Amino acid sequence: MEAAASQAAWERSGGRLEEQEEEVDEYVVDPARTAKLLVSGGIAGALSRTATAPIDRLKMLLQIQEGRTPMTMRQGFKQMAAEGTMSAFFRGNGTNVVKIAPETAIKLTLNDVLKHAVVSDPDDITPAQRMLAGALAGGSAQALIYPLELVRTRLAVCPSGTYGGIFDCAGKVLRQEGVRAFYRGIVPSMIGILPYAGVDIAAFELLKERLLDEYDNHPPAHVILGAGMLSSSLAQFVSYPLALTRTRLQAQGVGGQAVRYTGMMDVLRRTFANEGFRGLYKGAGTNLCKLAPAAGISWFVFEETKLALGVDIWACAEELQPVFSEIDRLIAANVARTQRAFATARIGPHHFLGSTGYGHGDLGRGALDQIMADVMGMEAAAVRIQFVSGTHAIACALFGVLRPGDELLSVAGSPYDTLEEVIGVRGTPGSGSLAEHGVGYRVLPLAPGSGAIDWGALATAVKPETRMALLQRSCGYADRPTLSLEDIRRAVQVIKAQSPRVVVAVDNCYGEFTDTAEPGAVGADLCMGSLIKNPGGTLVPGGGYVAGKRHLVDAALARLTAPGIGSEAGAVNGETLRLMFQGLYAAPQTTGEALKGGRLAAAVMQGAGYGVTPASGACRPWSAITAIRLGSPHAMAAFASAVQASSPIGSYVTPTPGVTPGYADPVVFADGTFVAGSTSELGAEVTESMDFDIC
């Protein structure tokens, strides 16, 4: 009845939070981040185009020449040199800078905004979505600054003395040709910029992601330059005929000359008829000589300027306010259900007296078990300081249920490292693992690509000997998403449909209070966890819990103590018992604050150019673990040292790799916490086989 009521409550609250979650998915523009992107883009555009201004003018001179025998690059340079001064090579560059700086700034800033609009998590964006965001950003920027593009073109291609500068050119065009002249050629320009910007931005971002992995998040300058040149070259090939069309439309009508073309299609048709296919790419070689290095310089300056401007932590926190508000609603829901459990158990000061010896008749221990069962949506629970870790609690449950000839099925990939020796995957022979007791073991690999449960394989995974299916709710050290309660509910249904006798057990470590209910509310038979993680509220000095169907909890306790003793023994002193009550009551709040800290860490590290999982704006399923891909042993050591130095305990200590019981590889722990190993306090972990730190 309790589990059914809990499941119904979860379904109701889940529906409400799903509606609220849609509000969080709306991207809130952060003014500080926007300003940083605008400044970075403006500087990048101005520097890159000034560096390549002579080639840019040469390109336009070549583009406007008609006929089967085009002007050569050498002839173009001679024509500019014949004008007598060095400034001839930079004619139109002032306008170019005035035009390209805001265009680049707007394009790159809008691209960032649109990526968040296209998908809620920019880390999961597809190449097609990148192209869409880039195309829309480029098109919007081009439309806003197009009149400056026409002025720039006129200054660059007209004979010396035609115009006296930017304002003179703009005034004469307005007086002689009207407002519409400023938008001459905008149709081919817009059509051309959409594929160009989409391909350029998408290609560079994909190349950058690959390079970050290849060069430990710090690719050298020449590599970034090369990536920018390659992406722009590809984009130019796609869009160049339209750029040529735009330039010819903009250049016609100068000095009272006849307007030769009626529109975009007329330019394309006549160019192809009179000059052939090569005519559509007239000046492309020169443009490539200009555009490729300009784009490389632009991307490099943009990335370096962003880093130089730094990450504003307060701005990140402000941007995350919608996410923090959602976490506050989660905290409120979990505080309410915890309060109800305490009230139902009628807790009083007499429950904090504790016990000695065998611990028989300890009222506090029994009341704490009742509260944990209610909170977990289970029939029974055992909360014991005698569990030395979450691994110990899980091991007791496994050995309590499984018998020789049974099989343990790990549903969500391989379990946490410390369970490998319990199961018998590795470890010292003769240690009494499940394998040595004749228990079989099988892993259901995660779905390729997504890292999710392989639902197709799970549908036929249960065998006659399968007795327990183990689900690890948290990602742990695996590079996969955290399981949601909906994932667990679906897995329970799929498994039970094949064999109702299979016990579905959930490793709930790091998962408690990260949703409005626990695994018992969605049909799990058992769940286990540690009190130095979420449910201890950073106050409980040790211990763990097992919750589930009464006979399964009794079986786990028989392994913790002995058959015949089970739940009736286990002394605990009064002060520790009080902390166990107090920590459990505080756990919804401390877990929520830990979730906020993880989202803030993700936002700051994303802003610094590092990959994180889950992304800073990601919501349900909430994860108490934030994976930060630092890429190199040096960066990971520096990060761990920074965490340790920022901690209240042991700030003078330098974390170094060390052998830790249960782990196959040496582990670096940065955990200057009041409770050793507490994970709701700030900490970081990394093993030598990983490429990211865990916050």
Automatic annotation (TrEMBL):
<dbReference type="GO" id="GO:0055085">
    <property type="term" value="P:transmembrane transport"/>
</dbReference>
<keyword id="KW-0677">Repeat</keyword>
<keyword id="KW-1133">Transmembrane helix</keyword>
<dbReference type="GO" id="GO:0046872">
    <property type="term" value="F:metal ion binding"/>
</dbReference>
<feature type="region of interest" description="Disordered">
    <location>
        <begin position="1"/>
        <end position="22"/>
    </location>
</feature>
<keyword id="KW-0812">Transmembrane</keyword>
<dbReference type="InterPro" id="IPR018108">
    <property type="entry name" value="MCP_transmembrane"/>
</dbReference>
<dbReference type="InterPro" id="IPR009651">
    <property type="entry name" value="Met_g_lyase_put"/>
</dbReference>
<keyword id="KW-0472">Membrane</keyword>
<dbReference type="InterPro" id="IPR023395">
    <property type="entry name" value="MCP_dom_sf"/>
</dbReference>
<dbReference type="Pfam" id="PF06838">
    <property type="entry name" value="Met_gamma_lyase"/>
</dbReference>
<dbReference type="InterPro" id="IPR002067">
    <property type="entry name" value="MCP"/>
</dbReference>
<dbReference type="Pfam" id="PF00153">
    <property type="entry name" value="Mito_carr"/>
</dbReference>
<feature type="repeat" description="Solcar">
    <location>
        <begin position="219"/>
        <end position="308"/>
    </location>
</feature>
<keyword id="KW-0479">Metal-binding</keyword>
<dbReference type="GO" id="GO:0005743">
    <property type="term" value="C:mitochondrial inner membrane"/>
</dbReference>
<feature type="repeat" description="Solcar">
    <location>
        <begin position="125"/>
        <end position="210"/>
    </location>
</feature>
<keyword id="KW-0496">Mitochondrion</keyword>
<protein>
    <submittedName>
        <fullName>Uncharacterized protein YnbB</fullName>
    </submittedName>
</protein>
<dbReference type="InterPro" id="IPR015421">
    <property type="entry name" value="PyrdxlP-dep_Trfase_major"/>
</dbReference>
<keyword id="KW-0813">Transport</keyword>
<dbReference type="InterPro" id="IPR015424">
    <property type="entry name" value="PyrdxlP-dep_Trfase"/>
</dbReference>
<keyword id="KW-0106">Calcium</keyword>
<feature type="repeat" description="Solcar">
    <location>
        <begin position="32"/>
        <end position="117"/>
    </location>
</feature>
<comment type="similarity">
    <text>Belongs to the mitochondrial carrier (TC 2.A.29) family.</text>
</comment>
<keyword id="KW-0999">Mitochondrion inner membrane</keyword>
